[in-house]
Amino acid sequence: MHVGVDDTDSESGMCTTYLGAVLMRRLADVAEVAEARLVRLNPNIRYKTRGNAAVALSLRTGREERVKKEVLRTVEELADMHSPATSPGVVFWWGEVPESFRSFYWRCMHEVVEVEEAERLLRQEGAEYVKYKLGRGIVGALAAIGAELEARTYEYIAYRSPERWGTERKVCAESVRRMNLLTYPLTFNNVDEDGRVLITPHTPCPVLFGIRGVSEQVVREAAEMVVAHEPVAMHAVYVSNQATDAHLQEVSRVAEVKPMSSVVLRGRVASRPEVIEGGHVFFRLRDDEGEEITCAAFEPTKRFRRVVRALLPGDVVRVYGGVNERRQLNLERLEVLRLVRHRAANPKCQRCGRRMKSAGRGQGYRCRRCGTKAKGKTLERVEREIEERVYQVPPGAMRHLARPLVLPGV
Ligand code: ATP
Questions:
Q1: Residue 231 Cα to chain centre, angstroms
Q2: What share of the chain in percent tops pLDDT 70?
Q3: How far is the CA of 90 from the centre of ligand 1 (A)?
Q4: Where does residue 225 rank: exposed (0-12), middle (13-18), buried (19+ CB within 10 A)?
């Protein structure tokens, strides 16, 4: 039996993974959890509270009515129903997951999907579902059941006791840095480049910390190394599509770039990168057909912006990133394929070393001081600060779905 749940949280609290963890505990005597999934969906949509996560549990049980009752009771008790933006949805499914659910998951990764579409599919396949308020949560709930987790990572999440929600988290930063030293890169995104701890969120949600890694065993071991000066009320280990690049779609032309999708696109830098107020960096990228798109590296991407600023028109790059409604591509990763190493310049005078000026159309070049002539431009070497390699935004600015470069398969 599969249970999908989404949209139970709001800016002011709760977290769908917490609800999933409570559910697992409450169902312990009637169901065995075969798999608990934490599924990230399209990172570009505006409905999301934070990271667009949904949860699905795959259960072995002979007590289906009891499970259903417990799930709905838990959602009604824990979901933040007062928040206008919270719109929970629950989906129940039995047996093999149909192909139509799989393709629905992929649509939810790349597009914006209407609640009606989820509902139509659920009815067509004969699934059971419950909507609260607008019921937008059935979109994520259904996608989480349909998610293909061929590439997978794991997250260990420790939760706080309710009386501490909203207060400062008491986790020893030094213990996190040590855990990172001992387990990275089998666990990842624990600390930022400057040593700042990333495993503790800054929101008033029930999560104390979350550790991501390549196996269940390693995230469990890493969690043991973290010293918390407050009780861990509960924990859960989820299998996830985080850090798998599942959101990225390769396109070959700017014309194929759809708003709200995440793409990989090869092209040539068409303008000098420009820094605007706030420290954001922008440049234009041109495809083989001459069509252009604006690419952006925002201030939170920190040092990554230096790489982007060092690009020159003519450089061949592959850009990776999310596309907004205005079809601007927000960079998550940049692959420098070929750097411009030479540029044509007016020749230097052989005699006095000055840069020559044009002597008129088709007349070549002439030194203004000594009159020396030259025929054409010369090729000069351009010193570059970047290399032909892949660059990625720092861990603190990384999308949940983006695969850190240290992991195989990028
Ligand atoms: P958290 O990460 O803390 O769980 P969140 O960012 O996941 O919060 P939600 O509260 O789950 O935010 O809100 C996301 C909402 O958007 C859900 O209702 C979900 O069903 C819906 N949704 C997810 N993906 C899509 C999509 N591709 N198209 C339309 N709606 C979507």
A1: 30
A2: 100
A3: 13
A4: middle
pTM for this model (two decimals): 0.94
Distance 347 CA to ligand 1 centre (A): 59
* Ligand 1 pocket residues where CB is under 6 Å: 6-7, 9, 15-16, 41-42, 45, 47-53, 87, 108, 111-113, 136-137, 139-140
Residues β-bridged to residue 381: 342
Residue 409 confidence class, pLDDT cut points 50, 70, 90: confident
What is d(CA 390, CA 376) in angstroms, rounded to the nearest whole number?
Answer: 36
CATH 3.90.600.20 domain span(s) along the chain: 153-240
Asked if the model's pLDDT at residue 410 lies above 70, the reply is: no
Q: How far is the CA of 108 from the centre of ligand 1 (A)?
A: 10
Range list for CATH 3.30.70.2200 in the chain: 2-146
Domain 2-146 fold is Alpha-Beta Plaits (3.30.70)
Please state which CATH class domain 153-240 belongs to. Answer: alpha beta
For domain 249-341+384-397, the question of CATH label 3.20.20.140 is answered with no
> Which residue, judged by its Cα, is nearest atom 23 of ligand 1?
140
CA distance 242 to 95: 25
Average pLDDT over residues 388-406: 97
| Residue minimizing CA distance to atom 25 of ligand 1 | 108
Residues of the chain with CATH 2.40.50.1010: 249-341+384-397
Q: Report the nearest atom of ligand 1 relative to the CA of 87.
A: 18
